[in-house]
Amino acid sequence: MNFGQKLKSARMSMNLTQQKIADDFFITRQTISSWENSNSYPDIMILIKLSDYFGFSLDEILREDNKMRLFLEKQTVRSDLRPVYRNTVVIVVILLVIELLDLFNVIKFGWIGWVIWLVFLLNVRVLSMLNKFDESNTMDFKYPWQKTIKKFLKFK
Description:
The chain is mainly alpha-helical. 78% of the residues lie in helices and 0% in strands. The chain has eight helices and no strands. The relative contact order is 0.08.
């Protein structure tokens, strides 16, 4: 049984509505619905609170639902990459400013300008690789409007 099924059966057995749980956790009813339909997952802190609230074992949930485990692992990697992404953006901006100053003859670097340009391009490449990771990190979780656009584009 996956997390969504387990959450729904626990909620039903306690005769609770999605709105009641949403109010207790200060989230929207749509979020609960999304979890129950396996369209998204809660973060680890809410998962722990849900475990206490319904009395089910986290170990059981994480062992049974491979997709959730993968989601949580990717969340960890994503948070670890955030400083790398931020630092790379800062480096790219600094190098771009230096190159523009060199281009407009405010400062002259000569052949070092070409090295700076190469480092700039490599950092831009790193940024594009990080963006591709972010896109692949969604695990097909999409907002409803994104699914609609995808269906529309396939229709054409």
